[in-house]
Structure prediction request, 413 residues.
Amino acid sequence: MKICVFTLGCKVNASESDSIVRDLIGRGYEVTEELEPADLYIINTCAVTAEAEKKSRQTAARAAKLNPNAKIVFTGCACQKNAAPFAEKKNAQLVTGVFGKGKIPDMLEERGILLSLEDKEFEELLPPLSDRARSYIKVQDGCNNFCSYCIIPYLRGRTRSRSPESVLREVCALSSAEIVLNGINLSAYDYRGKKLKDLVLALKDVNKRVRLGSLEVNVVDEEFLSALALLKDFAPQFHLSLQSGSDAVLKKMNRHYTAEEYLEKVRLIRSFFPFAGITTDIIAGFPSETEENFEETLRLVDRAEFSDIHCFCYSPRSGTLAYKMSDLPAEVKRERLERLMKKKELCRARFEEKNLGRTEKVVVEEQADGYFAGYTGNYLRAYLKEALPNEEVSVIIKERFKDGVLCEKFQEE
Prediction:
């Protein structure tokens, strides 16, 4: 039997799907992660926005076109939020939620809606296959923040973390040149009093590049940054969630920092890692956001000098506090997003220019259009004429190129 495991949404979903793939292959199934003809589809859904939930439902139709006789197993956040629409899909066999994903390979003959009880402890899953240049390692799940716009804490449950010893074992077992620690709220990592800083220190002797997933402002301090500096090969990219540069909007979002506090953390990061890539998320058109509020966000973008921005319009999510707030007109949100996108392109260009002439290390991930491509530690998309897959190579950054930079191998004396 051929099984397709198709993933939508975040890197945590990707990590969980990788574990399912590993389990299925171990049981003798032929497995693909591309949406292509198969006998059974396992669709790992996302609910972070209304659009993501819509795409999750639409994937069922795409699968049915590829094989009208195939059965479909749905799992993930969108199913946890509202299982019924997935159970009603043509060819739907089973609908599960976000808990107990490791049991899915044992449930392929089950039918109906089977939502597991909330996990109280971190669910240990099989490690992913280790033949990739970059592996995502899930170390934390759940969230206690309850930002007013976000549905995820209601779906993923309370925060829970994995032991440092378990993480270290998985890291050492992988052949990947780079590993990425991720979680639903990575900054909330807490295993029996051991915080994210302690997890980082547990990996200080690892001979792989270590990258972090998305972070919150509260975790960034001198002690944490000092721990990162002790890693043998740390990738100095910080995805530091912002959402808005207006204190008034941040308060309505239930984000527990001010714009100035955020900028202080950016400055602190650069005092440790001067060429760090600092990326972020920004929502355009949150309810009650005035033009002046939005201008405050644009001014903060200029001051922070981000290397890239993930920007999107506010999307109402039923079940959140913000859902009860008055939404802004769609044309206002679109216009603000367009202005933010222009800032994003300027930020990327300036960061690429800032790095020209520097030496960096690139983990080569793939071949693309006659070039070998990968990422620098500070997350510039890098292109090389000569390299080997899954190789970490020293380069000199020569010029801006395509969606990143063109590099040459650098021979250290």
Observations:
- Residues 2-113 form a domain with the Rossmann fold fold (CATH 3.40.50.12160).
